């Protein structure tokens, strides 16, 4: 959906058109829900991207609704990317998104990670941290991720603090792009997902997204 993603898409190795591992997966905790990015989510996402400050914070450019739809469809066919819409668990309302990019030429199982909490009312309530904890656990335990990398602009004070608080360590800085690259290993010395990710995964409820939505819409 973002300009930065489209550039990455051209660099990535696009495999044969297959649906992603999370095409019908919802990950739930009492605080957040992570659901697959589908076409019904695009209109709200498009509204978020009308905010110039949000575009600047996420290194994005304004796309048309049609372009956003095309990007959503492209991602559904790209097994080198994984994205979830983040929802408030109490209301099932969209509040942001999180993404993996498996584009490391030296390590197929290393990925870049991003998160955006677009709804202002959902910020500073722990949703970003919880979504990242769940998302990283999914990557480490289910996808076999070896390393998480995050690139954050110098001026994004909240995100820099968030990732450092999650244990990410500074790897490098780019004054040209005005961003810091952070890294966090996902596996222990034995090659297994670290205990912290296994513990998080054990508390996450997993379900079919379609089945969950059918129950939710049917009501009590």
What would you say about this model in short?
This protein is an alpha+beta fold. It contains eight helices and nine strands.
Question: What brief labels describe this structure?
Answer:
35% helix; disordered N terminus; 8 helices; alpha+beta; 220 residues; single chain; 9-stranded mixed β-sheet
Break the fold down into its secondary structure elements and pairings.
Blueprint: H1 3-11, E1 25-28, E2 32-36, H2 42-48, H3 52-57, H4 65-76, E3 81-88, E4 94-101, E5 110-117, H5 127-142, E6 147-153, H6 157-165, E7 169-174, E8 179-185, H7 195-203, E9 205-208, H8 209-218
Parallel strand pairs: 5-6
Antiparallel strand pairs: 1-2, 1-9, 2-3, 3-4, 4-5, 6-8, 7-8
Helix pairs in contact: 2-4, 5-7
Write up this protein.
This protein is an alpha+beta fold and 220 residues long. The protein has 8 helices and 9 strands. It has a 9-stranded mixed beta sheet with strand order 7-8-6-5-4-3-2-1-9. α2 packs across α4 (65-76) and α5 crosses α7 (195-203).
First CA to last CA: what distance?
A: 35 Å
- Mean pLDDT across the residues is 89
Say how many strands there are: 9
Query: How large is the count of helical segments?
Result: 8
Helix and strand run: HEEHHHEEEHEHEEHEH
Largest sheet: 9 strands, mixed
Silhouette: globular
- Helix and strand content put the structural class at alpha+beta
* Strand order in the sheet with the most strands: 7-8-6-5-4-3-2-1-9
């Amino acid at each position: 959906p973002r300009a930065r993603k489209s550039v990455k898409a051209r660099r990535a190795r696009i495999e044969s058109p297959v649906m992603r591992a999370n095409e019908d997966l919802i990950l739930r905790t009492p605080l957040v829900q992570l659901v697959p990015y589908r076409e019904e989510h695009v209109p709200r996402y498009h509204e978020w991207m009308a905010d110039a400050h949000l575009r600047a914070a996420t290194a994005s450019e304004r796309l048309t609704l049609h372009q956003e739809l095309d990007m959503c469809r492209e991602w559904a066919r790209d097994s080198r990317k994984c994205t979830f819409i983040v929802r408030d668990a109490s209301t099932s309302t969209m509040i942001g998104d999180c993404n993996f990019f498996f584009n490391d030429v030296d390590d197929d199982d290393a990925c870049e990670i991003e998160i955006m909490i677009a709804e202002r009312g959902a910020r500073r309530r722990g949703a970003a941290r919880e979504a990242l904890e769940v998302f990283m656990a999914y990557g480490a335990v289910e996808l076999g991720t070896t390393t998480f990398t995050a690139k954050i602009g110098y001026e994004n004070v909240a995100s820099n603090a968030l990732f450092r608080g999650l244990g990410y360590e500074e790897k490098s800085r780019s004054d040209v792009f005005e961003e810091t690259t952070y890294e966090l290993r996902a596996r222990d010395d034995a090659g297994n997902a670290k205990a912290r990710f296994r513990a998080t995964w054990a508390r996450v409820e997993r379900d079919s997204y379609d089945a969950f939505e059918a129950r939710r819409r049917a009501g009590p």
